[in-house]
Amino acid sequence: MNVHGKPTRTIWLHPENPAIVQIIDQRALPHAWVIEDLLTAEQVATAILEMHVRGAGLIGATAGFGMYLAAREAARSDNSAASIHAAGQRLKSTRPTAVNLAWAVDRQESAMASASSPGELVSIALSTALEIAEEDAASCRSIGGHGLALIAELSRSKGGAPVQILTHCNAGWLAFVDYGSATAPIYAAHDQGIPLHVWVDETRPRSQGAKLTAWELGQHGVPHTVIADNTGGHLMQHGLVDLVIVGTDRTTRTGDVANKIGTYLKALAAHDNGIPFYVALPSSSFDWKMRDGLKEIPIEERGSEEVKYADGMADGRHLEVLVAPADSPAANFGFDVTPARLVTGLITERGICSATEPGITALFPDKA
């Protein structure tokens, strides 16, 4: 996607030093553009844990590059297998809900198991990391193509009036290597000249919608409006939303969807108002072993300070302010689960399907 008019990805190798992985430190957005260098697997783990990078696909891609850096370190170790496994376990422990993380680590460990020398170990890890990143971008591009048809049909039914789309959190370019999942159809439609407008949930407590989704839509020239999280239902009641598209950090083989906290409430409002509710995801975000999202998907709980404090810019300075009583406890559940019955369909790189096991496995018969 475009940043300051230039096509940009969210993670890449340093162009002059392949021992350095570079990322956008998303904590600084939208007010500053900060590129961070990652030189060790531990630095990658910290970047994921502290949300320098976030979003299902980007977490997976970053973990893939983290395992590449772990391989470089292990090549200098007397026990490379143990070193690599320890790095993988450390990476897996950082964010438990997003299945892409464990998927990428396991894929790297499996690939590296065939290495017969330290040099081959590093080579395999690098090629696998690059493959994960390229596949993520390609999947999101395909998601955009399949979701474009939904927006185009709505545009025709409205006689060319702008299609009103609501999204929650950031399932955009910043959450993946490129294009995004929920935003990929939006970008595809916008680039084809289809009039549309996006309602952007602020997504407290970390405000990924207000900070990240709004910023990237603005960079790409997509019309949008930031709204408070509790506004979506009102907009739906008054006919101001035609379509809801969200992302997911883990979706079961039966169609239950874990996404940023507050997604379930949007699904309920959409269901009550007869508005299509779609979830966009690459196949790497499916958990093919899980069947009951409410019982099986681990829900990350983060620190209370994210709820009690808000941050932003004032007079050119980044500030954090306490917005709740200092002695009040706060709960911070990072995700909720939307039952499959509330999901109109899933937009994947292979096409659109119902949020049911038969629908999903029809697209992915290799997982049946």
Order of helices and strands: EEEEEHHHHHEHEHEHEEEHEEHHEEEEEH
Largest sheet geometry: 7 strands, mixed
pLDDT averaged residue by residue:
96
Strand content: 15-25%
Number of helices: 12
Count every beta strand, where a strand is a DSSP E run of 2 or more residues. 18
Reported by name, the CATH topology of the largest domain is Rossmann fold
Unreliable residue stretches = none
**N-to-C CA distance:** 34 Å
CATH superfamily of the largest domain: Translation initiation factor eif-2b, domain 2
Tell me the count of domains: 2
Structural class: alpha/beta
> What spatial form do the alpha-carbon principal axes imply?
globular
Question: Strand order across the biggest sheet?
Answer: 8-7-6-9-12-17-18
Give the second-level CATH assignment, the architecture of the largest domain.
3-Layer(aba) Sandwich
* Radius of gyration over C-alpha positions, nearest whole angstrom: 20 Å
What is the CATH class designation of the largest domain?
A: Alpha Beta
User: What share of residues is helical?
Assistant: 25-40%
Oligomerization state of this entry? single chain
Task: Give a verbal description of the structure.
- The model has no long low-confidence stretch (mean pLDDT 96).
- The protein has 368 residues and is an alpha/beta fold.
- It contains twelve helices and 18 strands.
- The protein has helices spanning 41-49, 56-74, 80-92, 99-112, 118-157, 184-191, 208-220, 232-237, 263-272, 293-296, 305-308, 357-363, and strands at 2-3, 6-7, 11-14, 17-24, 35-38, 163-167, 196-201, 224-227, 243-246, 250-252, 257-260, 277-280, 286-287, 309-314, 317-322, 335-338, 345-348, 351-353.
- It has two domains: 2-135, Up-down Bundle (Four Helix Bundle (Hemerythrin (Met), subunit A)); 150-367, Rossmann fold (3-Layer(aba) Sandwich).
- The radius of gyration is 20 Å and the shape is globular.
- A seven-stranded mixed β-sheet has the order 8-7-6-9-12-17-18, sandwiched between helices. A four-stranded mixed β-sheet has the order 13-10-11-16, with helices on one face.
